[in-house]
User: Which sequence fits this backbone?
């Protein structure tokens, strides 16, 4: 199995380097969830070594029944954010630097202190600021969405692309956090709307899921990390132009794709 992991990591790193997408991993390998997460871990480690990057947080995928159904899963999944994942609000992203990106409006949790292993919602809220965000999932596979399986997604670092993050604010209460309304605009035209309770009932519950999942591998979240907590709506294919997401109580975030 170690040999399989090395081969998969090599294929994905080569796709990163050449910008040439590859076939789904599942066509050549049969992996359980634990092994797929091990592929992700080693992929991220090698990518950090090669490109002088650091781990800066995590992204949570499949936080609604609809998105879990895509991968025939019964819980979310996570990917790892590294230095080049982070984009500040109002920046421009050159589409040629991406493969086949989507756009997802998400709240970002920025940790103001280390969290304990398996931290629950109250501890997370007490040690976080929250920012308006947009996630731009991207994958190294050919024709990946919505055709991936869970193993494919996990191996490709949870299809991590970029996360766009605005200035953080103090978090609202737990109850208020499940009632955040979001409107998504493309070039000034409204293209979507959603509510935060679509994210595992409450985005902070999504982060609590992550802390428990990471605890199984004795990993805890650290001060300064950014957590993309899950999309308010089904993912949309990205187009050139300016995207803006407006969140009640939290604020707005914007990015231009060219």
Assistant:
């Amino acid at each position: 199995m170690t040999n399989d992991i090395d081969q998969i990591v090599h294929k994905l790193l080569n796709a990163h380097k050449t910008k040439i997408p590859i076939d789904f991993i599942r066509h050549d390998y049969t992996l359980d969830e634990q092994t797929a997460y091990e592929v992700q871990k080693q992929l991220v480690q090698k990518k950090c070594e090669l490109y002088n990057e650091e781990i800066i947080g995590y992204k949570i995928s499949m936080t609604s029944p609809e998105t879990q159904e895509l991968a025939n899963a019964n819980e979310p999944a996570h990917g790892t954010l590294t230095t080049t994942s982070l984009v500040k609000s109002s920046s421009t992203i050159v589409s040629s630097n991406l493969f086949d990106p989507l756009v997802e409006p998400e709240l970002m949790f920025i940790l103001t202190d280390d969290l304990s292993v398996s931290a629950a919602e109250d501890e997370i809220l007490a040690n976080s600021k929250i920012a308006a965000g947009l996630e731009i999932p991207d994958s190294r596979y050919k024709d990946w969405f919505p055709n991936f399986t869970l193993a494919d997604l996990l191996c490709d670092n949870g299809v991590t692309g970029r996360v766009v993050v605005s200035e953080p604010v103090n978090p609202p209460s737990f109850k208020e956090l499940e009632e955040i309304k979001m409107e998504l605009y493309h070039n000034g035209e409204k293209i979507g709307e959603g509510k935060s309770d679509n994210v595992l009932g409450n985005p902070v519950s999504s982060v609590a899921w992550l802390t428990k999942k990471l605890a199984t591998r004795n990993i805890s979240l650290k001060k300064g990390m950014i957590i993309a907590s899950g999309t308010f709506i089904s993912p949309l294919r990205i187009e050139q132009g300016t995207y803006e997401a407006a969140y009640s109580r939290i604020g707005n975030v914007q990015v231009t794709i060219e």
About this structure: The chain has a mean pLDDT of 96. The chain is about 30% helix and 30% strand.
